[in-house]
Amino acid sequence: IGRALACAPEILILDEPTANIDIPTEENIFGLLKKYNEHMTIIVVSHDIAFISGYVDRVACLHQTLVCHRTEEISGKTIEDLYGASMRMIDHHH
Known about the structure:
By secondary structure, this protein is an alpha+beta fold.
């Protein structure tokens, strides 16, 4: 992430940037990314919608079609309707 930011990109694309990282470090990284997002577009691939929705403005869900949601619209029901399976959202309290 540091090398990518050193290039001062207009768009930063990250694939699971906090995989296998402890929760406090994950929160620190996403807090930093939220600050960088004031000056650049950041696209993050993540499977943890409950966590990521606390740091982003919009979530794009992909399952046979692309559906974008504002983060305040994300719920277990939204995900269940999209993916056709029961879903439970876990609040990370960040």
